[in-house]
């Protein structure tokens, strides 16, 4: 469930950045930036920066009397000046985004093709409550390009990729000398001067401004570096040992090395002196936010990192370290081909986990985990066209895209698809790949057209459910005739599929191609099979009956969180409970937890108490275990609303005891339990509509 909400920040504002790109009206863009120079001075003591942004503008319209700048809400505009240092008039304009827009009134009307220089002077004070993704503290600094809250001014609309894609870009940053600063590029020069140090960066290639400005630092960084086997990739981790254990640091860097070697062999990217860096900074609140940018990965610190055994961090398919690490091996993607961005990264991560799993049974668990994360939403939307729904955005971005690549590997063969992977990385690391180009590469490797696959699995919404039935009869020659009927429920998809027939001694696999809603196949087997299985290794993206139950529970959560729709949230949760009244799946805690939250929203504390008590008492299996422990904490919150602080405190203590059994899994619950043990609970609508 953690991955399903990994991009919650973007969802709550309504749309993801890529969707905003696609929807933005390009007619509003009157200029582009030809060169961008940013000079900033970081004042860690007072939690602020002072900056000067110099924009060399290229006018794109026939008659332009003003341009619009986009600034973060916390940014204060001091002045805007031209190349002669003459002050230019400004006026704040309404904006449909979370940032604010400033209209800069030009003294002369400019024409298409003209160039103009703007110097924008600003100051920004960082309060971690209102700018939770960017902070400056005495010991730590994080300045991150996160949606509307970037810490430098840009052209409005801020989400238009063309208006703010620039070359060259210059960054000149001055900061306290006792801070070890890490950025998403090596500084071109370093100039220490007493208690202050200035680093200069130059980005020569065209790139979005958000790819140039990710900075973080600390006065207490420890650095661990490891190089992979062929010395082509160097992995470095920066962290504070007081809040991030040395044991986990060693395990993470070791896994980076292993994963780096695997990805290098998979993609044949053996660039010398390439490096990937990860930095751990930020708040110890049990919730981990991540940023990936141009070879730098930043993770906010979390309570478990200081106390949990490293194996719980490094062994799971949900390992966020590796998922972020794979982004450094991503492909260039356009707004309409985001499957080559997040989906490709998830595919690479899954390939690594399959490689690590080794044995067939362990690989089945890896694929089933990915399948369950893909089928966690209603309704389905197409992968590459007309994607509007927020409820399934993560699943389309990550899991379905990843599964499409895994299925193509299954259809055309692992070796043939490996050749496609290498060609993609050779030709489309920087030049965006399109779906049609990708299809052509796959068809060349396969040797036959793949229109049927791309039409159904990429452009069509929905997923199939395949049902297998068999009849067996002994032949006159002592063999066995087996008739297998495969029926598809719901939307029809053409697909190859493996049928596995086995007994206690041996098994045999038959691959068939399903071309009809109901199709019959006949086989002669040399033994009597006692078990007949359809796709036991989960090569196909398909509904597995029990996963429909989990989808209802997760959809209940998404309706409440994304849409604030408690009617449909209750409906989905109740469907889950009706279909599994005895909690055979171990997932009912998710539905009960969701019903508890909606009951509080409706003002029925008695029902909420009953739901949370039931959820906390259930036997739970992944991914419901966190909700079982969280229900103890939320039950305490409800009792506090009823004036029963003493009873609530006892529940918080129980929650701490339960969560400490596995802090990596229960980090959110552990943090909340400790928080409310120390201070009284304060209720709000945002809290009860939230995921946890």
Instruction: Pick out the low-confidence regions.
Output: 1-27, 378-395
Tell me about the largest β-sheet: 7 strands, mixed
Q: How many β-strands, per DSSP? A: 28
CATH superfamily of the largest domain: tricorn interacting facor f3 domain
Strand order of the largest sheet: 4-7-2-1-12-15-14
Mean pLDDT: 83
Number of domains: 5
Q: Which fold name is given in CATH as the topology of the largest domain?
A: Immunoglobulin-like
- Calculate Rg over CA atoms: 27 Å
Number of distinct helices = 19
Question: What proportion of the residues form beta strands (DSSP E)?
Answer: 25-35%
Terminal residue distance: 11 Å
- CATH class label of the largest domain: Mainly Beta
CATH architecture of the largest domain: Sandwich
Helix content: 25-40%
Secondary structure category:
alpha+beta
The coarse overall form would be globular
How would you describe this protein?
- It is globular, with a radius of gyration of 27 Å.
- Mean pLDDT is 83; it is low at 1-27 and 378-395.
- Helix content is 34%, strand content 27%.
- A seven-stranded mixed β-sheet has the order 4-7-2-1-12-15-14, with no helix packed on it.
- It is α+β, with helices and mostly antiparallel strands and 692 residues long.
- α6 (342-357) crosses α8 and α14 (588-601) runs antiparallel to α15 (605-617).
- The chain contains 19 helices and 28 strands.
- It has five domains: 9-206, Sandwich (Immunoglobulin-like); 222-329, Neutral Protease, domain 2 (Orthogonal Bundle), CATH 1.10.390; 332-458, Neutral Protease, domain 2, CATH 1.10.390.10; 465-534; 545-689, Serine Threonine Protein Phosphatase 5, Tetratricopeptide repeat (Alpha Horseshoe).
């Amino acid at each position: 469930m953690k991955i399903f909400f990994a991009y919650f920040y973007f969802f709550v504002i309504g749309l993801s950045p890529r969707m905003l790109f696609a929807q933005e009206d390009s007619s509003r863009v009157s200029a582009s930036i030809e060169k961008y120079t940013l000079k900033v001075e970081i004042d860690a003591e007072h939690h602020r920066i002072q900056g000067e942004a110099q924009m060399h503008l290229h006018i794109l319209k026939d008659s332009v009397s003003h341009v619009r700048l986009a600034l973060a809400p916390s940014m204060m505009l001091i002045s805007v000046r031209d190349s002669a240092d003459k002050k230019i008039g400004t006026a704040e304009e309404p904006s449909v985004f979370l940032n604010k827009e400033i209209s800069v009134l030009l003294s002369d009307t400019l024409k298409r093709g003209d160039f103009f220089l703007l110097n924008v002077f600003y100051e920004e004070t960082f309060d971690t409550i209102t700018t939770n993704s960017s902070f400056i503290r005495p010991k730590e600094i994080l300045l991150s390009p996160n949606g509307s809250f970037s810490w430098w001014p840009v052209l409005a609309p801020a989400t238009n990729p063309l208006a703010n894609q620039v070359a060259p870009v210059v960054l000149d940053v001055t900061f306290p000398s006792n801070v070890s600063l890490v950025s998403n590029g090596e500084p071109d020069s370093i100039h220490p001067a007493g208690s202050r140090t200035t680093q200069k960066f130059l980005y020569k290639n065209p790139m979005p401004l958000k790819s140039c400005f990710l900075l973080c630092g600390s006065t207490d960084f420890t650095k661990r570096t490891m190089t992979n086997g062929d010395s082509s990739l160097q992995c470095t981790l920066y962290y504070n040992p007081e809040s991030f254990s040395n044991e986990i640091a060693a395990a993470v860097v070791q896994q980076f090395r292993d994963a780096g070697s695997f990805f290098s062999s998979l993609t044949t990217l053996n660039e010398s002196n390439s490096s990937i860096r990860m930095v751990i900074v930020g708040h110890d609140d049990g919730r981990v936010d991540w940023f990936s940018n141009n070879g730098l990965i930043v993770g906010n610190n979390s309570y478990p990192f200081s106390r949990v055994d490293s194996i719980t961090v490094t062994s799971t398919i949900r390992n966020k370290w590796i998922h972020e690490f794979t982004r450094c091996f991503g492909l260039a993607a356009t707004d309409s081909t985001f499957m080559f961005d997040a989906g490709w990264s998830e595919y690479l991560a899954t390939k690594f986990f399959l490689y690590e799993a080794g044995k067939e049974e362990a690989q089945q668990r890896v694929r089933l985990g990915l399948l369950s994360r893909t089928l966690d939403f209603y309704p389905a939307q197409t992968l590459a066209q007309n994607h509007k729904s927020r409820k399934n955005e993560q699943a389309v971005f990550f899991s379905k895209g990843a599964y499409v690549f895994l299925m193509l590997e299954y259809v055309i063969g692992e070796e043939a698809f490996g050749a496609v992977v290498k060609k993609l990385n050779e030709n489309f690391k920087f030049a965006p790949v399109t779906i049609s180009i990708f299809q052509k590469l796959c068809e060349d490797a396969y040797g036959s057209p793949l229109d049927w696959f791309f039409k159904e699995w990429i452009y069509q919404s929905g997923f199939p459910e395949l049902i297998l039935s068999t009849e067996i009869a002994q032949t006159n020659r002592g063999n066995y005739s087996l008739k297998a009927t495969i029926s598809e429920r719901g939307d029809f998809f053409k697909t190859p599929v493996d049928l596995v027939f086995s007994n206690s001694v041996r098994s045999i696999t038959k691959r068939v191609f399903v071309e009809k809603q109901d199709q019959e196949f006949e086989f002669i087997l040399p033994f009597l099979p006692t078990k007949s299985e359809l796709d036991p290794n989960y090569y196909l993206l398909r509904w597995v009956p029990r996963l429909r139950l989990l989808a209802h529970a997760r959809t209940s959560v998404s309706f409440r969180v994304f849409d604030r729709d408690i009617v449909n949230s209750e409906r989905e949760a109740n469907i889950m409970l009706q279909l599994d009244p005895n909690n055979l799946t171990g997932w009912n805690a998710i539905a009960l937890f969701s019903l508890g939250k909606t009951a509080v929203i409706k003002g029925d504390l008695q029902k909420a108490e009953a739901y949370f008590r039931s959820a906390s008492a259930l036997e739970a299996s992944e991914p419901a275990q966190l909700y079982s422990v969280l229900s103890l904490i939320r039950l305490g919150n409800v009792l506090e609303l009823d004036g029963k602080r003493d009873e609530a405190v006892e529940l918080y203590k129980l929650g701490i005891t339960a969560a400490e059994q596995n802090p990596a899994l229960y980090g959110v619950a552990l943090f909340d339990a400790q928080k409310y043990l120390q201070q009284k609970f304060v209720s709000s609508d945002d809290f009860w509509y939230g995921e946890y």
